[in-house]
Amino acid sequence: MEQFGDYAYYYNSFYKDKDYASEAREVDSLLKKYGNDIKDIIVFGCGTGSHDAELTNMGYQCHGIDISSTMIDEAQKTLRL
Description:
Layout: H1 7-14, H2 20-34, E1 40-44, H3 50-57, E2 61-65, H4 69-80
Parallel strand pairs: 1-2
Helix pairs in contact: 2-3
């Protein structure tokens, strides 16, 4: 059974005002403070990949995992932008 099937197509529209860049900066800050030269991140529940895109722009290699194959398809589109 596909979780979030149709929802995936509208997810980015619903959250268009969400500040993914700010949230990614916070993750970056925490990784730099507590990590040891971390460059690879596994993103569980990556959704449509908006956080992944921001973190990739910061030099991280993101590996997204999601229960929804439709969300993964949308994330691949997001990361190709």
